[in-house]
Write a structure and sequence with these properties.
heterodimer; A: about 55 residues; mainly alpha; B: about 425 residues; alpha/beta; 18 helices
């Protein structure tokens, strides 16, 4: 296999891996954003003032 | 100057992890204590990656500080990384079970690889303790160099485990730009590694073995005809050599010094003290070889000396090999004293070559060959005061011998900066 072909394969592989990892990282961010939003909503639902409780 | 260059080189260890750590501190919202604990792990990971990058032995680093300094930093980075990883484990908490397991096992594996490498691949401890040296020689019957190199490649598995460990931790993986940089570090170093191992050899000099003779009980002389002359080869230089298409020896790379200054036909004088070198006996003429290099800084060290500063070339056994080419290159330009210790008279196989050099040096070159090591009182007689005070010393031979000679020279009053050495494993 020629050196040029090997280099092209390796460069393509590296770019593909970096693109896949960027997609994974974006998913992590989206998941963490949605997880952060969920508990905040739950807290709002459980807040009850003393007057209302009586 | 040599110390300054080395210090500059060592700052790589400080600079390399910085972008990763700074980016993390900029994006993370955690308390500072937790950020610090995570940073310990980041620096450990960056050092592990840098150690892998250095193992690719870029020629420009060899020209800057030499391969011994490069491998010195390579080892220290591994050592430092394991210590930082332990501090990181002690202080930081991984919420994810798999991340915890990966972190723990990558630590145990890295500790194992480090201890194995210190024993089998470095001379830090073993070269200084005779019992350990004998134990290693005995153990090398099973843990051959090729096995050691494969075990050393577990470093790549460790990198993969730590990379996954970081990707599983929510408090780290939620920071997009940090994770992108983390991945660029990882893929960048592993990409360079793949390039060097897979594509790089295509550009290396090639040749064929034209002669393979026994010079003594355990010494061989290998002659290689290059397809293209090695124009960048300097006196005292060496190549990493790999034999191809032969079942006699494995395909791993081994460093060998070039004995003379012929750049079309390379001569290697090889001491057969290990599994690989013993097998070289069976290497037939016509075997194709590939060479990585040239490496070596002996000649540039000579050129840095004053024009007429004397040289003392001290070779032990096959350690004379790189010194012969240095002597050939400088014998008519400055005072040179070659001191060669051999095991028995029949192993003084380059006596004629040295005599020829001496004869054509116009009285500048002196040669002292003796059976057995040079003793302190002999060195005191053989070396004159100008050489001891201002000369450059080049010491090459088996590791314990070189370390002993360095101690001896220091006791005679030779400064550390005057001594250049190469230790044969």
């Amino acid at each position: 296999m020629s050196s040029l072909l090997k280099s092209t394969i390796l460069a393509t592989l590296i770019l593909a891996i970096l693109a896949a990892l960027t997609w994974v990282n974006l998913r992590h961010v989206r998941d963490s954003d949605s997880n952060a939003a969920a508990p905040a909503a739950a807290v709002q639902l459980t807040v009850v003032s003393p007057g209302e409780a009586a | 100057m040599r110390i300054l260059r080395r210090l500059l080189f060592w700052t790589i260890a400080l600079v390399f992890p910085l972008p990763l750590v700074i980016t993390y501190w900029m994006v993370a919202q955690e308390p500072n204590q937790l950020k610090f604990d995570i940073s310990l792990g980041l620096v450990a990971y960056a050092w592990w990656l840098l150690a892998i990058a250095l193992s690719l032995r870029p020629v420009w680093i060899d020209r800057l500080v030499g391969l011994p300094a490069l491998y010195g930093l390579h080892g220290m980075l591994g050592f430092g990384a394991v210590i930082l990883a332990q501090l990181h484990r002690d202080s930081a908490y991984a919420g994810d079970r798999l991340a915890q397991l990966l972190g723990d096992w990558s630590f145990y594996l890295s500790l194992g690889v480090l201890l194995y490498s210190v024993f089998f691949l470095s001379g830090w401890v073993v070269d200084r303790i005779r019992f350990l040296l004998l134990t290693r020689r005995w153990a090398e019957k099973v843990f051959r160099h090729q096995v050691s190199m494969w075990l050393h490649r577990l470093n790549l598995v460790i990198v993969g485990m730590i990379w996954l460990h970081a990707h599983l931790l929510v408090r780290v993986n939620q920071h997009f730009w940090f994770m992108t940089l983390f991945d660029v570090y990882t893929v960048g170093v592993l990409g360079c590694y793949a390039w060097k191992k897979w594509i790089g050899p295509d550009h290396y000099p090639t040749g064929v073995v034209t002669a393979n003779d026994a010079l003594g009980e355990s010494i061989r002389r290998l002659r290689v005809r290059l397809d293209q002359p090695a124009d960048r080869l300097e006196p005292g230089g060496f190549f990493f050599l790999r034999a191809e298409g032969t079942p006699v020896v494995g395909r791993e790379w081994h460093p060998f010094s070039v004995t003379d200054d012929d750049r079309a036909y390379l001569t290697f004088t090889i001491r057969q003290n290990g599994d690989y070198t013993r097998r070289l006996t069976g290497l037939t003429t016509g075997t194709a070889v590939r060479l990585e290099g040239p490496f070596g800084r002996f000649d540039s060290a000579v050129r840095r000396q004053d024009a007429h500063a004397p040289l003392a070339l001290i070779g032990m056994g096959a350690g004379i090999a790189p010194l012969l080419s240095l002597a050939a290159a400088h014998h008519d330009a400055r005072p040179i004293h070659v001191l060669w210790a051999v095991r028995n008279p029949s192993e003084a196989y380059y006596r004629d070559l040295l005599d020829d050099c001496r004869a054509s040096s116009g009285g500048l070159m002196t040669v002292s060959i003796q059976v057995g090591r040079f003793r302190p009182e002999q060195l005191e007689q053989l070396l004159d005061q100008p050489t001891i005070r201002h000369g450059a010393f080049f010491v090459v031979g088996p590791s314990p011998g070189v370390l002993g000679m360095q101690r001896l020279l220091r006791r005679l009053g030779v400064a550390r900066r005057q001594i250049h050495h190469e230790r044969l494993m």
